[in-house]
Amino acid sequence: MRSIIPIQDNPTLRIKARTVSEDEIGSPALTTLIAEMKALLEKEEYGVALAAPQVGESLRVFVVSGDAVRRRKASYDDADGEVIPMDQVYINPSIEKMSRTKKDKHEGCLSVRGKWGMVPRAEKVSLRYLDETGAVKERGASGLLAHIFQHEIDHLEGIVYIDKATEVFDDESTDSDGAES
């Protein structure tokens, strides 16, 4: 079973992840990776999403936890009614559109434990991606989900939120409202 690797021990977090080939979709290796990412995310109290580079795999894949997003919405400042009924997998995602309007968001990361920061993020995005079967999908998002998409795409580009944060703070409690992924 893989584990979430801290930034200081994970050079994969600082490189652009490679595109998943058509042949890899549905393969035992990718299926196992996704299952392990979902299991890791399920164990995290504050995590809402996880990108493959966070577990040392340089692949353009991330998973969003449906349960975690539902839990977070109650406290998120601009909950937008997005419904995520179950964990969702995004393969080779790309942001197609992004609103010009940005808002500072409270953000943390499972690869940078014990810290959080304020990061300017677009309020709305439109994402194009492949699902686990290889079908092309598009999804628009605002609020928390748009925030998550941008954070995870950054991971796939070798960027960690602390690179974009206008302020970074030490986490003094475990009762943080910030989304970690």
Could you give me the name of the CATH homologous superfamily?
A: Peptide deformylase
Give the rounded overall mean pLDDT. Answer: 89
Fold-level CATH name: Peptide Deformylase
Q: Write down how many β-strands occur, each being a DSSP E stretch of 2 or more residues.
A: 9
Q: What structural category arises from helix and sheet content?
A: alpha+beta
Terminal CA distance: 18 Å
Described by strand count, sense and barrel closure, the largest sheet is: 5 strands, antiparallel
Q: In what order do the strands lie side by side in the largest sheet?
A: 1-2-3-6-7
Order of helices and strands: HEEHEEEEEHEE
Give the total of domains: 1
Strand-residue proportion: 25-35%
The global form is globular
Report the helical percentage: 10-25%
Architecture per CATH nomenclature, i.e. the level-2 architecture = Alpha-Beta Complex
Number of helix segments? 3
Radius of gyration (CA) equals 15 Å
CATH class category label: Alpha Beta
- Runs in which pLDDT lies below 50 for 5 or more consecutive residues are 74-79
